[in-house]
Design goal:
By secondary structure, the protein is α/β, with parallel strands linked by helices. It has two domains: 121 residues, Enolase-like, N-terminal domain (Enolase-like, domain 1, 2-Layer Sandwich), CATH 3.30.390; 237 residues, TIM Barrel (Alpha-Beta Barrel). It contains 13 helices and 13 strands. Strands 4, 5, 6, 7, 8, 9, 10, 11, 12 and 13 form a ten-stranded mixed beta sheet that branches. A three-stranded antiparallel beta sheet has the order 1-2-3, with helices on both faces. α3 packs across α10 and α7 runs parallel beside α8. The longest helix has 21 residues. The structure holds calcium ion. The site of calcium ion has 4 residues, from loops.
Length: 379
């Protein structure tokens, strides 16, 4: 049995209420690039690439896909190394690696289906059968009601059962950000875990000054305070603040994460399984992180495919540090409009009381509704 065919599906759906983060561009659509790999036995595996979907499609259709056809799907790591060594001269980071990620996830799905076991059982086993999830939201939508909309949205997540919420910051003034986060903290109360995400909009001095203020509000982590290229800056921010500093959603492969981890530039690294190199590479990034006392709490912003892959990865991560009352790594459960998160799997991945079950079926443990692919096909 060999890999017979690699197909990419570019999907796009309009967003009813466009939103932005500190980056400043409006999200008017949600899209993704799904990877479908079929074996000569007719087994189908699904993967997903994070980032501009037409770019991922081009990498796979023209470069990576043809190298995968004819291979043994069980050779997941062999295939990974071959694809990486083929493409790294043109891009050891970025969309080339996101494209490899989609293929890697699809191969794990196939291997799991062939073995009749969920992916997490193939990558070390389950440290947990369900994971705590945090709601990612509180973007900027109505610029005249920034505080009220954040408070209302956070209260909604708590009503829905979430016990942890991550909010966007980066409103151009320390006071405005502080005021908005303080209003949310007051609304949700002291028992809800609250994180902030700046999407790397601050300078080092501003990040430190704002961070010191936000520490008064019991913020669990400060995500992407500054630009991801500035490892020295991350070291400065991390040393200056008592609260955890997180980052890495735009970093790739074990080599990309190595310097940030070795220098302890951040307390928490956040590789995305659909971007940083797939499940295979994220396991290695987590292993490197563990050798330096850095936590690995993956980033996730994708469809049901990426969400399922993230859940299997999370199931396989040990508590750090291990203890009687540990803080296991949480699932980032993004809550903005996204039909691919909600409808692509025939049984949607959902939270109950802030917890999400790790899929237990073979492979990724989800079944794809092809009518959703047909409906939103954009390439
Ligand atoms: Ca983020």
């Amino acid at each position: 049995m060999k890999i017979r065919k690699v197909t990419t599906h570019v999907l796009s759906a309009p967003v009813e209420h466009p939103f932005t983060s500190s980056r400043g561009w409006l999200y008017k659509t949600r899209g993704t690039c799904l990877v479908e790999i079929e074996t000569t036995d007719g087994v189908v595996g699904w993967g997903e690439c994070y980032g501009p979907s037409a770019v991922a499609k081009a990498f796979i259709d023209t470069q990576l896909g043809p190298r995968v056809v004819g291979r043994d799907p069980f050779d997941v790591e062999v295939v990974w190394e071959d694809l990486y060594n083929r493409i790294k001269d043109y891009g050891p980071k970025g969309m080339s690696i996101a494209a490899i990620s989609g293929i890697d996830i699809a191969l794990w799905d196939i291997v799991g289906k062939l073995c009749g076991r969920p992916v997490h059982k193939l990558i070390g086993g389950a440290f947990r059968s369900e994971v705590d999830a945090y709601a990612t939201g509180l973007y900027f939508t109505d610029m005249d009601r920034l505080i009220d909309e954040a408070v209302e949205e956070a209260e909604g997540y708590v009503r829905d059962g979430f016990r942890a919420v991550k909010m966007k910051i980066g409103l151009g003034s320390i006071e405005r950000d502080y005021e908005r986060v303080a209003a949310v903290r007051k609304a949700v109360g002291p028992d809800i875990r609250l994180m902030v995400d700046a999407n790397h909009c601050f300078s080092v001095p501003t990040a430190i000054r704002l961070g010191r203020r936000l520490e008064e509000l019991d913020i669990e982590w400060f995500e992407e305070p500054i630009s991801p290229e500035d490892i020295d800056g991350y070291v400065e921010v991390s040393r200056a603040l008592d609260m955890a500093v997180a980052g890495g959603e735009n970093e790739f492969t074990r080599w990309g994460f190595r310097d940030a981890i070795v220098r302890k530039a951040m307390d928490i690294v956040q590789p995305d399984v659909c971007a940083a190199g797939g499940i295979t590479e994220c396991k290695k990034i987590a292993a490197v992180a563990s050798t330096h006392g850095v936590e690995c709490v993956p980033h996730a912003w994708g469809s049901a495919v990426g969400l399922a892959a993230t859940l299997h990865f999370l199931a396989s991560l040990p508590d750090q540090p291990p203890s009687l009352f540990p803080f296991p790594p949480m699932l980032e459960f993004e809550q903005c409009e996204n039909p691919f998160r909600d409808h692509l799997s025939t049984e949607p991945i959902q939270q109950v009381k802030g917890r999400v079950a790790v899929p237990s079926g073979p492979g990724l443990g989800i079944e794809i509704d092809r009518s959703v692919i047909d409906r939103y096909r954009a390439g």
